[in-house]
Specification:
By secondary structure, this protein is of the alpha+beta class. The chain has two domains: 262 residues, Beta-galactosidase, Chain A, domain 5 (Distorted Sandwich); 287 residues, TIM Barrel (Alpha-Beta Barrel). Helix content is 16%, strand content 37%. It contains 13 helices and 39 strands. Strand 4 and strand 5 form a beta hairpin. Helix 4 packs parallel to helix 6 and helix 7 runs parallel beside helix 8. The protein is globular. The N terminus is likely disordered.
């Protein structure tokens, strides 16, 4: 196949089915979607191998001050197309991705006097579906406000669910619940389920632009409805024709590992809009970060200030010696005093503290083959940030910065802003206000040739395909909760749930790599709740093209043998496969390096020790490899003996099977390099 061209076959016809009912099936006839009108009201259903996944579910909108778009429709036209294209990622977990689906476009028109038009587009993939609404340009509708999106997902039973509740103070940064669907209220997506027939489902959305993000609300029994985060005045979406909504998505797999290797979300996004991407480079970074979370230093200026010129140069020297690409510096700029995260203290994004020479440090980094990673904590004061961000990004570009970490801590779930009449407005972190803001930031960053690492932002919906400088983000409980989380840190099963929930959205700046698992001098009630080998395995399990080695330089220098794996493991991949998968229990992921023939394996478990058999059939046949193994020792235990690790080498080939012995909350990390 020619990877740089595509085949598009369009067949235009109305399917010969009964009444106002239409169908589309995935290319291999695995997944089917039925659309139908009942007395002018649009509905759909979804089947997999002929068995219902989503039963009769309503579609449509409730609008403000004009008639709703939810009833009185007839079918005006139907288009069916087949699409098969393989495209290349700028970076990612897989270099080449096949976009293979059948599409059904249904043009609806109202019977009444207005005769407004609405199109519903379904795409059927073998691993799930996506659908969206389109409102074309037309005389009968211009600007309008959406008060409610009526999209439903009527599920077939009380499925097992993994979820985080929506509309909570701390956004997405909670531990996952594992309950029956019947105990769910309103949840964030990705929302992952297992049916009684062991079918795995995950609900999400793709290509959220100029729209609110969605939660899912259980309205009755086993039916979910789209719940859009509103503006301060209660409007959900402010828009105008022509417009398109985000895609509503359902990913499906017989094994939970199939959810991990589904690229449906990416495929539903538009192609790359950045013509020259040579400046967008995956890499690894260290930084002035963990020392502040454990309490060794502070963000604000004072006797223990972390972001000093001297300390930054120490990190740069360490990064240069060990071939890291960036050094993150947090707390360098004015504004960190007091309760900035609660009071919305105004930050200055171009003025450093007196003890930090921004220009000098940036040049020192460049002179040593490293770049500083910029940092913009906004304290959720969006207008203050937007007033300064053109100058702030221009300054970073001038200093040779190629990546910026942004943050939106503050006001809990809310963003505060003032309109032209000086009225205070409170907006959700996940509503249209913030979606539009983040889009402005990513486009401005691209203008200045800067990649983004977004914390406390909106969830990933695959926009990294369209804007590949949107490289990674947080939007979940990361490593910092192990420093000060009230429960003593993230429990062992947290990182074994993430690959099947949050990580399905896209790259996660979890910030792995802590090798000093206890830090009693600073935080005696907290620790890393895994073994040393388990922490190394996270570099393979949790994908991020900007991957941090989060611990202090002196801790790595004390464990050079362990640090070697962190230095070796790539941040960009050619291919990804899943060997073992059980949500919240264990997972084994293998990835092939984008720039060599090396493969890497990461395997982790919850608080239960396990023995897993790993076939090496993914290796090239007829070729021998050296397996560089970092495994739990025979006495390893995450509570009593987390540092017990064995580092060894073995010669292996594709005909062999390796036994992975995982201690409690343990893991194993392996590099396979050809002989």
């Amino acid at each position: 196949m020619n990877y740089f061209h595509f085949l598009l076959i369009a067949i235009f016809f109305i399917l010969p089915v009964r009444g106002d009912s239409l169908s589309v099936y995935s290319p291999d006839n695995v997944v089917g979607v039925q659309f139908f009108l009942v007395e002018g009201v649009p509905y759909y259903s979804v089947q997999r191998f002929g068995r219902d996944v989503v039963q009769k579910s309503r579609l449509g909108f409730e609008l403000q001050d004009i008639p709703d778009l939810k009833t009185g429709f007839t079918i005006n036209d139907v288009t069916n197309t087949h699409h098969d294209v393989t495209w290349k990622q700028v970076w990612g977990e897989k270099k080449y991705i096949r976009n293979y689906y059948n599409e059904l476009r249904i043009d609806l028109v109202e019977r009444g006097e207005l005769k407004r038009e609405m199109t519903i587009v379904f795409r059927a993939y073998d691993d799930g579906i996506g659908f969206r609404y389109e409102i074309p340009e037309q005389p009968a509708i211009g600007e309008f406000n959406i008060m409610n999106e009526l999209t439903e997902f009527a599920l077939t039973g009380d499925h097992e669910a993994w979820w985080i509740g929506a509309y909570q103070w701390n956004r997405f940064e909670y531990l996952y619940e594992n309950t029956p669907l019947s105990e769910v209220d309103t949840v964030h997506t990705h929302f992952t389920l297992r049916t009684e027939n062991d079918l795995y489902l995950s609900f999400h959305e793709a290509a959220v632009v100029d729209y609110s993000t969605m939660a899912l609300e259980r309205t009755h029994d086993y039916t979910l409805q789209v719940n859009l985060f509103p503006w301060a005045d209660g409007v959900k979406v402010r828009t105008a024709a022509p417009m398109v909504t985000p895609w509503r998505t359902i990913q499906m797999a017989d094994d939970p590992g199939g959810l991990i290797t589904s690229y449906l979300i990416l495929n539903l996004n538009e192609s790359n809009k950045i013509e020259d991407t040579t400046w967008i480079k995956p890499g690894k970074y260290v930084g002035i970060w963990w020392e502040m979370h454990i309490g060794k230093s502070t963000w604000e200026i004072g006797p223990n200030h972390g972001a000093t010129t001297e300390n930054a140069k120490r990190y740069i020297d360490f990064a240069a010696e060990h071939n890291f690409d960036h050094v993150l510096v947090e707390g360098w700029n004015k504004g960190w005093e007091g309760d900035w995260y609660a009071d919305g203290v105004v930050f200055d994004f171009t003025t450093p503290y007196p003890d930090f020479d921004l220009a000098g440090v940036a040049q020192y980094a460049l002179d040593n083959g490293v770049r500083i990673m910029g940092h913009h904590e906004t304290s959720a004061n969006i207008l203050n940030y937007e007033e300064q961000m053109e100058d702030a990004f221009a300054l970073y570009e001038e200093l040779g910065v190629r990546a910026v970490k942004t943050g939106y801590v503050g006001h809990g779930t809310e963003i505060v802003w003032y309109d032209e009449d000086d009225n205070e407005n409170h907006e959700w972190h996940h509503g249209q206000f913030m979606v539009e803001h983040h889009q402005r930031v990513v486009e401005l960053a691209a203008k200045h040739r800067i990649s983004l690492n977004v914390h406390e932002g909106v969830k990933d919906t695959g926009l990294r395909r369209t804007w590949p400088n949107l490289m990674t983000r947080e939007v979940a409980r990361g490593q910092e909760y192990n420093a000060w989380g009230g429960e003593g840190g993230n429990p062992p099963d947290h990182v074994v749930i993430l690959p099947f929930t949050r990580n399905l959205s896209g790259p996660f700046d979890y910030t792995p790599g802590i090798v000093e698992l206890h830090y009693d001098e600073y935080r005696p009630d907290n620790r890393i709740n895994s073994t040393l080998a388990g922490e190394l395995a996270l570099y393979v399990i949790i994908h991020s093209p900007l991957q941090m080695a989060a611990d202090l330089p002196e801790n790595y220098e004390a464990r050079p043998d362990v640090f070697q794996f962190i230095k070796d493991v790539p941040a960009d991949w050619y291919d990804t496969k899943v060997l073992h998968a059980s949500i919240g229990n264990y997972v084994t992921i293998i990835r092939k390096d984008h720039n060599s023939d090396d493969w890497y394996l990461g395997s982790i478990t919850d608080e239960n020790g396990r023995i897993l058999e790993a076939s090496l059939s993914f290796l090239d046949a007829g070729k021998e490899y050296v397996a560089e193994i970092y495994r739990d020792g025979k006495n390893a235990d995450w509570i009593n003996n987390p540092y017990d690790i064995v580092i060894e080498e073995k010669v292996v080939d594709s005909s062999m099977t390796m036994q992975l012995r995982l201690a409690t909350s343990g893991g194993q990390a392996i590099r396979f390099r050809p002989l």
